Structure formats: C-alpha cells, structure tokens
Amino acid sequence: MGQPRIQEPWGSSPGCQRCITGSRLGWFGHKEPRIWGTLHGTDSSTDLPTRGLSVPAGQRKCPASGEAQGLAETRPRMETLCGEQRTLLGDKEYVGFATLPNQLHRKSVKKGFDFTLMVAGESGLGKSTLIDSLFLTDLYKDRTLLDAQARIPQTLVIERRAVELEEGGVRVKLTVVDTPGFGDAVDNADCWGSIVDYIDQQFEQFFRDESGLNRKNITDGRVHCCLYFLSPFGHGLRPLDVAFLRAVQHKVNIVPVIGRADALTPREVGAMKEKIRQELEENAISIYQFPDCDSDEDEEFKAQDAELKRSIPFAVVGSNDIVRETKEKAFRGRTYPWGAVEVENPAHCDFLKLRTMLVRTHMHDLKEVTQEIHYENYRAQCIQSLSRVGARDRASRMKLSRQSATELPLLPLETEKLIREKDEELRRMQEMLQKMQAQMQQSQGEQSDAL
Amino acid sequence: MEGELVQPAPEETPRDANPANVGLELFGYVGIEAVLDQMRIKTMKTGFEFNLMVVGQSGLGKSTMVNTLFKSKVSRKPTGPGYEERIPKTVQLQSITHVIEEKGVKMKLTVTDTPGFGDQINNENCWDPIIKYINEQYEKYLREEILISRKRKIPDTRVHSCVYFVPPTGHWLRPLDLEFMRRLSKIVNMVPVIAKADTLTLEERAEFKKRVRGLGRESVYPQEDFDDNSDDRILNNKIRDKIPFAVVGADKEHQVNGKRILGRKTKWGIIEVENPAHCEFPLLRDLLIRSHLQDLKDITHNVHYESYRMQRLNESNRLALSPINGLLGKDEVESDL
C-alpha cells in the first residue's frame, strides 16, 4: 500500500521547502512538519492533540463534519517518528492516537471534497481565463460571448459550472459560480440583487437540509469564496464595486483581485493596491482575513505570511497558453510584441500567491469561515425572525408552550407559513362570527323593544 | 476677348468631351502656386484653433493620451502623492486651453475632458451634458454668424473631434459605448480608440476590432459619405480598416537602445508608444494632427454645424414665420433664439 503521491506539475511552490509536496489539502500541509518537530523535543505525547488537531488562528474549533486535515505525507514520517518515540519512551507510554489525523485523512480522501467558488466582476477582466488557469481546466473553452445588442435586455444570470478534479488520489468537486452580465448595462442599479439572493438561497437550502430528517447526503452548495475582480483601469474602487462589496461582505468570504494586471507597471500596481486597501477601510468593507500564524512559527513562514497579507488585493494575469521562448524554456503566459508575461513568475504577477492561498493553504479555512461565521449569521437571523413571528402567534392565541427556538426549524419553512396563515384566517373568521352574533342580538333586542 | 475661353490648341484633343473638365494649358509660368505660400504665411500669422474632446471612463488614460499626442503637459494631471481623484457624481466638462507653437506655426488647442462619464452605477443619460455642451458651442458660433456686423474672425469653440476611449475588454462594445457612439456620431466627428491596449495580445486586438467594427461603421470618422475623390477614399479606407486604433499612452521616457523613447516600462519589456509594431498611437496622431486636422475642422463646419444651423433656423422660422428663409434681423434673432 503506497502512500498517496501528490504530483507537483509546475515545480514546487515557492518557500515551501519543508513540505515534500505542495499539498492541496489545507494549511496543515505547511504546518505539520513543525508539529512533529516540537513533538520530537517533548517527552509526552499529550502535546499532540492540542497542537496537531486544533486550528491555531483565533482558536476556532475543528468542525465536527471533519473535512480532512491534509497530512498527505505524514505517514512515512510518522511511522519513523513513532519508531523513534517508541525507542524513547518504550511501548508502554505510547497510546497510539497519534494516528488520528491519518484516519481522518484517509476517510476524507475517500469522501472527496467540494468547494464552491464564485467569480464576480465586470466582463472583460479575465475571470474565466483565470479560473481555467488556476485549476488547469477548460471550463470556459466553449463559451460564446454575447454581443452588446443581445445583452441589453438581459438581466444578470447566475451560471454554475462543476468539474471534478483529481490529483494524487484526492478528489475535489469544484463548482464555479459565474455572474455574466454584472455591471455591463447602462443602468446597473441593484444588479447584485440576484447574486445576494443566490447566496441566501444556498444558505437556506443547507439550513433546511440540516434541519431535515435525513441528513446523510447533504450536498453543500454554499459559496465558500467570492473572487471579486477589480478593474486595473480605474483609480481604486468604483461606486459599483463599493455597493456590491457592501451587499455581500457578511455573506461570503470576499477575496478582491485586480484582473488583467499586465496593464500596469510595477509602480502602478503598488499604488493601486494601496489605494484599494485604503478605500476598503474607508468604506468599512470586511474582506476575508487570513488567519494569523502562530507566534512560534519560524521567521521564514511568518515572513511569507506577512508578504501574502501585504499583497492583497492580488494583481493577477491568467493564461492557459503555453509560450515557448527557447527550446528549454516553456511557460504559461501571454506574448506581446514587447515581451512575454509569465503567469507563474512572482515578479510579473501575483498568480502564484493567489493559487497558493486559495488552493494550497487556505481552501479549508475558507470553508470553515463560511460554515462558522457566515452560515451561522444567516442561521441566527433566520431563527430569530421565525421565533419572533412564532412568539407573536403564540401570544395572540394566549397559549403557553415551550419557548424553545429549536422547535421551529423542525417544520419546513413553507408549511410554517401556511399554518400561520390558516391561523390568521381562522381568527378573523371567528371575530367576524362574533360580530355578526352581536349584531343579531342587538337587532333582536331592538325588535323586541319596538314590539 | 475678355469673356472667352482660350480654346486648347487643335493638336491637343481633350480627354473627355465634358467642357468642365477641360484643363487650360499654360505655356509659361504664371505663379498660381504662390497662393500656397501666401496661405501659409497668413495662417502662420493668425494661427489656428483645434478643439478636442476626450470621453471615457476614469482611469482609461485620457489625460496621458492627450499629453502624449501633443508632447507637452496639456492636461492637468498631477502625479504627486496625496492627490485624490474623486469620481464626480455627475458628468462634468472641463476645458483647458493652451497655445502650442512649432516651427512658427501657432495652434490654440482646447482639450475638453469629461470626468465622471460612465463611472456611476446608473449611467443612464450620462451623455446628455456632453451633447448639451457640443450644441452650446454650435449655438455660440451661430449667434456670432447671424449678427449683422460680424467679427472678422469668429472665435471657434466648436468641438472638432471627439475621441472616445473604449475599455479593452476584448469581448464586445458595452451597451453604454454603443449608445454614446450612436448619439454623438451624429453631431460631432467621433474617433473611437481602444484605450490601454497593452493588455491585449495582437490576436486579441484583431478579434476585438473585428467584432467592434461591424457596429456603426458608417458613423465614425472618417465618414464614408464625405470622401471627396477616389484618392481620399483609398486613404480613408486604409484608416477605416484600422479603426478603432489600439493605443497606449505614456508620458515618461526610457532608454531603449541608447535612445530616449516614450514608453511604459514593465518587468517583461518596454512598450514603445511610437513604435507601430507595438501600438497604433502613431496612426492616431497622424490622423488627428498630421493628415486630417484640417479635414476634421472642415467636416465640423460644413456638415455638423450646417445640420445644427438648419435645425435651429427651421425651428425659429416656424416661430417667426419670416418670409425670407434664414435671413432674420438682429432683433428677431434675439427674441426667438
């Protein structure tokens, strides 16, 4: 039984010298050598659970649904380490739950992962090309571009494209949600409405599934990350950008990206990033924050992390065309008469940083934040509004019942509404009946008076 | 003998029978061509005016392009730190006038910029202030022209050419672009350009142009209807094949092969603005300045201004019911217009 070998087709990721491979599976791919390093120095194996299985940043707990912590290459290491451990401590002091991460890993590799990415931004900023380059797919090969005439009457559509990627035995079901038509019309007021509705719809679907009876096969369609493309031609954020970001900031992880960055000289890139960061702060827009690394990480990792944070928003160039400059030197890029832009050259653009961040180190964190922060926000709002209505109903009927909010989500939302409506109708009819009775009595009384 | 035409000598038969095309043979040097020199000296003394308008979303390099065109800091574009470029809430029109001189020829150049165009969320009718401005300039000229005692040289503030900057999306023209070009090509010479074209590869450029060219070919400058003769047509066809020009603007110089060249320096190469292999800026410059400047002014005066004038005088004719078409007295003009 061989360990899963993860292919690294493009050369190892920069700065990641300690990982044997660039693991796709979460930030553990980076961190775990460190963990083993400290374990080596200690003489109790109890250090492992706290370091190994907990998420360091902000002390967020691992979700119970247990997406894998990627420890692709741990098995050979661990075995040797266990061997060493055993010699250090003797068999009696070795319990063996050091293999827990491995078990998780095996299970989740079998299950596969899913990740939903949304791309938004005006047309022509290179969104589709970037997706194809990021995941080395050709999702957008056969698309037809609508001309301006055809686009005028159209409202924003939401398109989903799903692809199954496999690398080194690990399967990822990637769903890309595209928003063609965003910001293209003359009047773009509220063109983001359908995007916000879509995100909410996915949350609602998950909410219902979660509260349903059969929870075995929930498909998670929630949007884990939104790549928002900013135009390199403007001066910072435009009014449309600000409006859209404000509308979605609390529903999805926003990663702002400057598309078509080969239009900018290095100095202009720096100025633009500075301007955008400033304007994001001014408008109080909360984008996805990278978790801070542990204070005991080594300097190199910290420096890398700090550099990654400084480069937001990423200035990217996408391309899937291979350029052959000389016989040996072939790279993915775009050729111009004055030179060729290399997509994977960190000096030319931030494509590598974006890919590292999105796929190699923070994919899992994005999913976690979606689950724990955005989804929980939505759920809390939902339950609150339901319980408010429910409390009003109950108060009007003057019944005593359990005030448990957990009672409500058990009923699907629509039947709840129907029940409420029927109650209202019943009440109204009762009131009318009473009125009519009172009137009849009155008129009878008058009649008897008159007689 | 005064009124008679000198017939050509019998041995020289004219090519065609049409008397209008019969050229007179000169058998000595008359000096007609000296009129060219006279004209040149005169224009050098008076100088001439050129009014250019640049329209496009913010950040497309309009001010830089104007600076590159006229090789001087024509547009106010401070690049110092701490300069905030706020997008105005409505479209504003800012005109700057400079007098440029080259080899004794003076040109009074007015550049009208339109910040705020197409930058809002709702861009409905953002072209109205621009149309209003252009019509106002025609109006001013019309009033001067109608006066009984006119000025010797009417100051010409009419917009001679409108350069419209299309963002290099590589896909299609946006609805906003289409609407704007349609409306404005009726009242002013419209020259669309693809801005910041250094982000499109050569294939993408050709694709984009192909897609864009199908729309509104008859309305962009140089208009097909106004070609005077076949030479013009050939020249203009060459230009029309390349419209819209893919341009890159730069106002910094760099060293390339020992020469100082205007360009943009990136990590993967230097984009030379004046190199026709890199971008089509030389074509734009030639069109606007070197070959078609006078033509732009002529068409503005003979075509666009005339149609405006006709429209206005018809309107006021209906009001004034004047029997003499077009000849209104000064008082009537003031009361009606």
TrEMBL record, chain A:
<dbReference type="GO" id="GO:0051301">
    <property type="term" value="P:cell division"/>
</dbReference>
<dbReference type="InterPro" id="IPR030379">
    <property type="entry name" value="G_SEPTIN_dom"/>
</dbReference>
<keyword id="KW-0547">Nucleotide-binding</keyword>
<keyword id="KW-0132">Cell division</keyword>
<feature type="coiled-coil region">
    <location>
        <begin position="415"/>
        <end position="446"/>
    </location>
</feature>
<feature type="domain" description="Septin-type G">
    <location>
        <begin position="111"/>
        <end position="385"/>
    </location>
</feature>
<comment type="similarity">
    <text>Belongs to the TRAFAC class TrmE-Era-EngA-EngB-Septin-like GTPase superfamily. Septin GTPase family.</text>
</comment>
<dbReference type="GO" id="GO:0005525">
    <property type="term" value="F:GTP binding"/>
</dbReference>
<dbReference type="Pfam" id="PF00735">
    <property type="entry name" value="Septin"/>
</dbReference>
<dbReference type="GO" id="GO:0005737">
    <property type="term" value="C:cytoplasm"/>
</dbReference>
<keyword id="KW-0963">Cytoplasm</keyword>
<protein>
    <recommendedName>
        <fullName>Septin-type G domain-containing protein</fullName>
    </recommendedName>
</protein>
<dbReference type="InterPro" id="IPR016491">
    <property type="entry name" value="Septin"/>
</dbReference>
<keyword id="KW-0175">Coiled coil</keyword>
<dbReference type="InterPro" id="IPR027417">
    <property type="entry name" value="P-loop_NTPase"/>
</dbReference>
<keyword id="KW-0342">GTP-binding</keyword>
<keyword id="KW-0131">Cell cycle</keyword>
TrEMBL record, chain B:
<keyword id="KW-0206">Cytoskeleton</keyword>
<comment type="similarity">
    <text>Belongs to the TRAFAC class TrmE-Era-EngA-EngB-Septin-like GTPase superfamily. Septin GTPase family.</text>
</comment>
<dbReference type="GO" id="GO:0005856">
    <property type="term" value="C:cytoskeleton"/>
</dbReference>
<keyword id="KW-0132">Cell division</keyword>
<keyword id="KW-0342">GTP-binding</keyword>
<dbReference type="InterPro" id="IPR030379">
    <property type="entry name" value="G_SEPTIN_dom"/>
</dbReference>
<keyword id="KW-0547">Nucleotide-binding</keyword>
<feature type="region of interest" description="Disordered">
    <location>
        <begin position="1"/>
        <end position="20"/>
    </location>
</feature>
<protein>
    <recommendedName>
        <fullName>Septin-type G domain-containing protein</fullName>
    </recommendedName>
</protein>
<dbReference type="InterPro" id="IPR027417">
    <property type="entry name" value="P-loop_NTPase"/>
</dbReference>
<dbReference type="Pfam" id="PF00735">
    <property type="entry name" value="Septin"/>
</dbReference>
<dbReference type="InterPro" id="IPR016491">
    <property type="entry name" value="Septin"/>
</dbReference>
<dbReference type="InterPro" id="IPR008114">
    <property type="entry name" value="Septin3"/>
</dbReference>
<keyword id="KW-0963">Cytoplasm</keyword>
<keyword id="KW-0131">Cell cycle</keyword>
<dbReference type="GO" id="GO:0005525">
    <property type="term" value="F:GTP binding"/>
</dbReference>
<feature type="domain" description="Septin-type G">
    <location>
        <begin position="46"/>
        <end position="315"/>
    </location>
</feature>
<dbReference type="GO" id="GO:0051301">
    <property type="term" value="P:cell division"/>
</dbReference>
